[in-house]
Amino acid sequence: MKNVLCAVAGAASLLISAPSIAQTTLTVATVNNSDMIRMQGLTSEFTAKNPDITVKWVTLEENVLRQRVTTDIATKGGQFDVLTIGTYEVPIWAKKSWLVPLDKLGADYDVGDLLPKIKDAVSVDGKLYAAPFYGESSMVMYRTDLFDKAGLKMPESPTWDFVVDAAKKLTDKAGGVYGICLRGKAGWGENMAFLTAMSNSFGARWFDEKWEPQFNSPEWKKTLTTYVDLMKQAGPPGASSNGFNENLALFSAGKCAMWIDATVAASMVTNPKDSKVADKVGFALAPNTGLGKNANWLWAWSLAIPAGSKKVDAAEKFIAWATSKDYTKLVASKEGWSNVPPGTRTSLYKNPDYLKVAPFAKLTLASIDAADPNKPTVKPVPYVGVQYAAIPEFQGIGTQVGQQFSAALSGSTSVDAALSAAQSATEREMKRAGYIK
Amino acid sequence: MARMVTTRNKVISTAAAWLAGFLIFFPILWMVLASFKTELEAFAIPPSFLFFHWTTENYVTVQERSDYLHHALNSIIIAGGSTLIAMLIAIPAAWSMAFSPTKRTKDVLLWMLSTKMMPPVGVLVPIYLIFRTVGLLDTRSGLIFILCLGNLPIVIWMLFTYFKEIPKDILEAARMDGATIGRELIYVLTPMAVPGLASTLLLNLILAWNEAFWTLNLSTLEAAPLTVFIASYSSPEGLFWAKLSAASTLAIAPILVLGWFSQRQLVRGLTFGAVK
Which of A417, B165, B166, B230 is the most buried (most CB within 10 A)? Predict the structure, then answer.
């Protein structure tokens, strides 16, 4: 009780003695990822340099954040000054004039240092509408010990034939080790992120140049058949409910020989505190079929300013700080180079201190370079985005199709039935939205 | 012989009740256990029930990262405020419909219930615009208002059914004995209605406490209750079950304790009128 009273008295005295300079309070909406939490913890470094700015944080679950922020921005509610959004939202929202272009990031910001693919993904017509906080692609993470034991050697850029073959050879169901772990949980950002990227490598595409859905194409059939057969033979049980986190737990516990997922996972599976296989992980590019596209995606959690904010200057100052080279150095000095936000700046991948602690850096950079949101597929497409099509309707359609494909994985429907249901659902939605007649 | 069968039956029914109780309570117990595990252990398959490395680090992290008391206080004010206002409006409404019904009473009741049939997201944008215009976004009074509106139909329906159960003959008898309206209310009606009122109040409080759609969408910082506190611990890229469990345990603790202490009223109210 005494402690509580002391705390209350302390808080009251702090309030009374607060300085009386005009304060700008920034409200930052973000997701609960470790890099964002770290930024939250380091906010005091920013406010120490900018005593007239106070930063308040709203951390929400990804889908809640998306809904919350979309409502606020569409109604010009003005509840947030800085938003954490992904590469999917940036082009759509920028075209609706919902975002403020970031042209006052400062002379020393060095926009030219941003990785070109990531910069493209958050720019519209050459203007930056969001500043990338951390970027990711996807790649193969594999167990070097299991590969050695089986006499297999992972090429730097494997083909799907090699991956399928290796997964079958490495599966030891009795020993609780599965050849491959892949996303199966339905959702446009869950299984469809993986499957869309995979389909790109098989030459498939979501829509043709006239926005006609393409799930009835032989390329999609080959993609889904390969995926379902592979997971049935070499995947863990209950894979249709596995997303990023479930697979992270499985891989970290030593239950997967291979896992194809976000490059940010690399620092988690190589961290001895959280992973039982930390010193036995190798990396390779996401697989291909020789058509010139690898099955890897591109994503960047980025900071943007909603058009409704009345504190644009302060918000831009904050964004410039949080995505600067100096911020990277700050994190490195406080928490070590392995904890700096990856995938946004060229200079980071030339930094010997970082390269020393990040064995995955080279492949992360190569994966990001190998993804092209403006030309994601073998055949031409009318949309931007590697593992999604950047149109507002995609969230709904992607999740519907994801449910069909998840059902095909769990065995409750066949590959053909899932593809035909995906085709008719997508056709219906695209007609309703006026893309096709 | 008959006694033996009775004893055996008693043992069986007691065991069955305990088992049912345990099964219903299990998810909460599991959450509490997970909150004392490390992230890897919380995700481990097969899961360990009691034999794991117990740690309180999740609670420490949650305390460091979020202002629990601020959120809890908001939850208490919002849930309590909306419940009290809903009761103040619902008691006279249900009372008049139960004791002096008209031809249209049933229609009115059904119309009120029909408002609950619409998914709330359908009116999110209009409500958001109204709230923005009148400056109610991220305010406790705004959330009290919307939760009160949302729960009113259920509160009125519950109270209406309780009041309906009170035999009118008793009131008439009291009047025959010369009781005034005041005496009738205090000495005859109130004692009979208290269990119903108490259980409605508690249920409404629980509904308002757990309400997650409006509280998440209409609050940002100042008015954010415990639902927002919990939502901040789910992570798209990283293990979070243990920390989320710790946050959830903290969030449900007050209402769990309240429910525990008032379970007699709750059970009495919910079974009121079940046996005639």
Answer: B230
